[in-house]
Amino acid sequence: MPALRKILPMGLAGVALVLASCGGEPAGEPPARPVLVARPESAPGVARSFPGEVRAREESPLAFRVGGELVRREVDVGDRVSRGQLLAVLDPGDFEAQARAAEARLSAAEAELSRAAAERARYSALVGDRLVSRSAYEAQEAAWRAAEGQARAARAQVEVARNQAGYAALRAPADGVIAGRHAEAGQVVAAGQAVFTLAADGGREVAIALPEGEVGEHAVGDVVEVELWTSPGERLRGRFREISPAADPAARTYAARVALDGDAADRVAIGQSATVHAAPGDVPLTVPLSAVQQAGDGRPAVWVFADGRVRAVPVRTGAFGAERVPVTSGISADDWVVVAGGHLLREGQEARAVDRRNRPVAPGAPDPRP
User: Fold this and answer.
1) Which has more pLDDT, 6 or 153?
2) Cβ count within 10 A of residue 267
3) Which uninterrupted H or E stretch holds 110?
4) Which of 44, 271, 329, 341 would suit a FRET pair with 73, their CA atoms being 20 to 30 Å apart?
5) What is d(CA 229, CA 220) in angstroms, rounded to the nearest whole number?
6) Residue 133 sits in which domain range?
7) pLDDT in tens, 121-163
8) Comparing C-alpha atoms, which of 285, 286, 276 is closest to residue 222?
């Protein structure tokens, strides 16, 4: 035991000597850590685009109110028409014959009414002189009323027959352009069967189809931009005017109409191909998946390099993609975001930033991307 007491102090002294030789001074701040940084990128894929076709706001299928053989067609697709202009004619022979028959029945009914009126007047005088019974006079009164009703019915039939003859001529209900033709001369058409489609003058719209998973992201009145196939890069302002509440049973898409604002309607033609860009000007930035870390409170954050140091910035993210994450708030397009090694950093740590080409990035330097 005395020997152990002598050895123990000597051992402690040796350990102290070794520690002093390894580092005689307290450890300082670790050297600047190299980090890979990049600017956030815009996410054009978030602003969805939908192909469509320019259509008239009012598209009316034009049809005859009666059936018959189409004997003459006065206009073709693309022709401009004015209100009241003759478009097509049915064979009027049957309608004219029906009108003549109705007029003949009216003549007979009016003749019967005249006879019944004369008999009524004669019986009225006789019953006053007590030469006929009251019941005989009342019978003549009833006959006159029946003849009067028959005459009114005949006049109505004449009006109907004349209208039928007039319906054999199809006229334009408004100014516009013939957008479609659905019947040819010689064809027998039924009442109500479309013969032409009229695109009335006035508003112009773009008809699109919204996918099932995105119909809830848009609402009537939302602002969009319309790009014509003939004018790439030029965008016209528009708004959702109509979104169908029911999906197409075959395509499972929702029909929607985008109305063009201002004088844009005068710059488009019916049938033009167009692309509707939804949510213009509201496209978030994106960062790589590796840039998003979890802050101490569990919320997402990214490391931002500025003034030679890194700091954690809380952000709001959208739906994660395969390679990138939309960031809706927290950073700007001018920030340098650490895209690799963020899990090794600490708040306020000094860093030495490089870009993807291993070029140094000084604090406040412009984007080195070519």
Assistant:
1) 153
2) 14
3) helix 93-128
4) 271
5) 24
6) 93-166
7) 888 888 777 787 888 888 888 988 888 898 899 888 888 888 8
8) 276
DSSP H/E element including 96: helix 93-128
What CATH code is carried by the domain that includes residue 321?
2.40.420.20
Specify the 3-state DSSP secondary structure of 24.
coil
For 286, list phi and psi in degrees, rounded to 5: -130, 150
Q: Give me the number of domains the chain comprises.
A: 4
DSSP state of 297: T
Query: With contact defined as beta carbons under 8 Å apart, do 331 and 304 qualify?
Result: yes
DSSP 179-234: EEE---TT-EE-TT-EEEEEEESS-EEEEEEEETTTGGG--TT-EEEEEETTSTT-
Q: Concatenate the DSSP letters of all residues of 302-361 into one string.
A: EEEEETTEEEEEE-EE----SSEEEEEES--TT-EEEEE-GGG--TT-BEEEE-TTS-B-
Whether 1 is covered by a domain: the verdict is: no
Q: What is the pLDDT of residues 69-101, one digit of tens each?
A: 899 999 998 889 999 999 999 988 887 888 888
Instruction: Please check whether residues 233 and 264 belong to one and the same domain.
Output: yes
